[in-house]
């Protein structure tokens, strides 16, 4: 008896497109954006890094065609930076046409304090995603550094669930971004890209 060949899955063959829309005033959050890019690229995804304070029409078009958009910003005064908020308001054009409906979304932030009210920035990102009808992908990691046997070098050392949260001493440059936070951001990139692939394959299967 011959076993029939499995149906070809064209959806699985097409790598997802992940865009990282981010701002960084002093370069710390840029290090994390690069880590998200590396994590997503590891899975074979096509990745676009977009600096929201320099965004061009071509880059808006890249966001429009992405399967997933990862939002990233430092936490300034307990929320995303002013430059990120300018970008968020500019997305209202996309909101009006539902252009980003059913894309995936996720987020990361960095601040000077261990807490620094970073959760509020991640919540802002998730509400922005919800306003667009996007599907939020959380970090998907247990919290690290929470017992006598744990360490500050653990993945998700700051214990965020909604997205990736990092801390960098304010008197250090971009090379001061913590390795564990970089690894956590890479994890987020891999997770978003993997989920985007699952979502695209599922959508193709439903349409078939
Ligand atoms: C205007 C301003 C506001 C800030 N507000 C906060 C804050 O609310 N919480 C915090 O922990 N750090 C705060 N910081 C520190 C930054 O989050 C920190 O320096 C971060 O690493 C900057 O990231 P970037 O280099 O990507 O801009 C603030 C810094 C600035 C310049």
How would you sum up this structure, described in words?
There is one protein chain. This protein has 208 residues and is α/β, with parallel strands linked by helices. The protein has a single domain, classed as Flavodoxin domain (Rossmann fold), CATH 3.40.50.360. 41% of the residues lie in helices and 18% in strands. The chain is built from 7 helices and 7 strands, in the order αβαβαββααβαββα. It has helices at residues 10-13, 28-42, 57-65, 82-90, 92-97, 118-131, 179-207; strands spanning 17-22, 46-51, 68-76, 79-80, 104-111, 135-136, 164-167. Strands 1, 2, 3, 4, 5, 6 and 7 form a 7-stranded mixed sheet that branches. α2 packs across α7 (179-207). The chain is globular. Residues 1-12 have low confidence and may be disordered.
Percentage of residues in helical conformation: 40-55%
CATH topology (level 3) name: Rossmann fold
Write the H/E string, N to C: HEHEHEEHHEHEEH
- The CATH class turns out to be Alpha Beta
Give the name of the CATH superfamily: Flavodoxin domain
Mind sketching the topology for me?
Elements: H1 10-13, E1 17-22, H2 28-42, E2 46-51, H3 57-65, E3 68-76, E4 79-80, H4 82-90, H5 92-97, E5 104-111, H6 118-131, E6 135-136, E7 164-167, H7 179-207
Parallel strand pairs: 1-2, 1-3, 3-5, 5-6, 5-7
Antiparallel strand pairs: 3-4
Helix pairs in contact: 2-7
Short description:
The protein has 208 residues and is of the alpha/beta class.
Summarize this structure as a short list of keywords or feature phrases:
208 residues, disordered N terminus, alpha/beta, 7-stranded mixed sheet, binds flavin mononucleotide, Rossmann fold
């Amino acid at each position: 008896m011959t076993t029939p060949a499995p149906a070809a899955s064209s959806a699985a063959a097409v790598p997802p497109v992940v865009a990282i829309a981010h701002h960084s005033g002093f370069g710390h959050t840029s290090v994390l954006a690069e880590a998200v890019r590396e994590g997503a690229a590891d899975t074979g995804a096509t990745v676009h890094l977009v600096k929201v304070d320099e965004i061009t029409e071509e880059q808006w078009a890249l966001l429009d065609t992405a399967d997933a958009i990862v939002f990233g910003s430092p936490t300034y005064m307990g929320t995303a930076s002013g430059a990120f908020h300018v970008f968020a308001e500019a997305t209202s054009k996309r909101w009006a046409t539902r252009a980003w409906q059913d894309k995936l979304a996720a987020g990361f932030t960095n601040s000077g304090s261990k807490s620094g009210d970073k959760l509020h920035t991640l919540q802002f990102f998730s509400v922005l995603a919800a306003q667009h009808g996007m599907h939020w992908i959380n970090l998907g990691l247990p919290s690290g550094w929470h017992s006598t046997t744990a360490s500050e070098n653990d993945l998700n050392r700051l214990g965020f669930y909604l997205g990736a949260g990092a801390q960098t001493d304010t008197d250090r440059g971009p090379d001061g971004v913590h390795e564990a936070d970089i690894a956590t951001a890479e994890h987020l990139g891999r997770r978003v890209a993997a989920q985007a692939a699952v979502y695209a394959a599922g959508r193709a299967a439903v349409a078939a």
